[in-house]
Design goal:
Shape: globular
Largest sheet: 9 strands, mixed
Bound molecules: 2-phosphoglycolic acid, zinc ion
Low-confidence stretches: none
Helix content: 25-40%
CATH architecture of the largest domain: Alpha-Beta Barrel
Strand order of the largest sheet: 5-16-15-14-13-12-8-7-6
Oligomer: single chain
Length: 430
Amino acid sequence: MGKEFRISKLFAYEVLDSRGNPTLAVECYTEDGTVGSAMVPSGASTGSKEAVELRDGGTRFMGKGVRKAVSNVNEILAEAIVGMDVREQIAIDKRLLFTDGTDNKSRIGANAILGVSLAVSRAAANALGISLFRYLGGSNANLLPTPLMNVINGGVHADNSLDIQEFMIVPVGFSCFSDALRAGVEVYHQIKSILKSKGYSSAVGDEGGFAPSLNTNREALDILSEAIERSGYKLGSNFALALDVAASELYYEDEGAKFYSLPGEKREKLSSEQMVEYFVDLVENYPIVSIEDPMSEYDWEGWELITKELGSRVQLVGDDLFVTNSKIVREGIRRKVANAVLIKLNQVGTLSETLQTVETARLSGYRCIVSHRSGETEDSFIADLAVALGVGQIKTGAPARSDRNAKYNRLLKIENVLGENAVYLGRAVF
Ligand code: PGA
Ligand code: ZN
């Protein structure tokens, strides 16, 4: 092994994420001075089975400090992997898991472990002198993802009354990524004008989408439709629509009774069947091609029902349901729930486990969407990951705020680097 590949040092420190909460930055050095770095994202509507993010508690940063995770990198994980070859990602990730020793990464912290795992892969790409997407994806990686752009924010990502967390526009009818993104930006600005003309706020939520206090979910879908058409595009052929309901946040248990509540819609105590009817009605009235977490992670029967009802027409994406965990995805495949998996590195905590989940999903014909978290940084790792895996879809928010645009801008760079070899499907992958 050459000196450029042998890990000599890990160095972590606290930085801030897009919500102003602390997170980790990690640098991995090799013996010849090559460096790979990474920053760790953080969710708000988290699934209950996600790997554990280690926070310090106490009063510093309202309890959200990550000094303990930082010291776990510098003192424990460094000792575990110094001397290893940065190209041995699987062996390194296994060593990280072994060092933690728990099922959910709660001792060392999934945030500490992920920072190291990603910094190692960047160091390997740098030592080999190739781009991250090329290192992770090989010589054939050339598919730019279709962005699912979250332009109206609700749920726990915004202080408004919208029950659905994300209303997304999906530029499908375009021949290259940059054209698709440009059209998305035009629609985004058009939404702002429409909101202003109707007297709504154009302040934004955590993922850069607008967060107006609209009266109903349908009003949000109508505004998206109007903005697409006013921008000169055709609803359905140039742009499709997508939702992330994050329904685990809308699911309640009261003295044994389980139900959904849509307070924004003034509809309380909906059964799983009524929720499914609600979505069938939306799908019949709008060109919705993808719905994420339409049912709660605690309602697998509801998931079975919606998959039977809509699974052949609409992409049904498990986020909180699957938490990027290959075991849970396998169970989902067995029970025929959902038909797609949201891929979030920090839900599972290492790069190689993430890749294993993608493989599990794809072997059974489940689609994958590489995704950001609502708390993000300027790190654009997921842009390279989406191209490397060729999954054809990315979810990284509105085309506003630098934490989101870092990913879009990185995809623009990759498209330019690939030149005429870049491919954009120009249609829904689903
Ligand atoms: P989160 O939201 O990062 O707050 O979990 C994103 C999502 O639900 O897809
Ligand atoms: Zn989600």
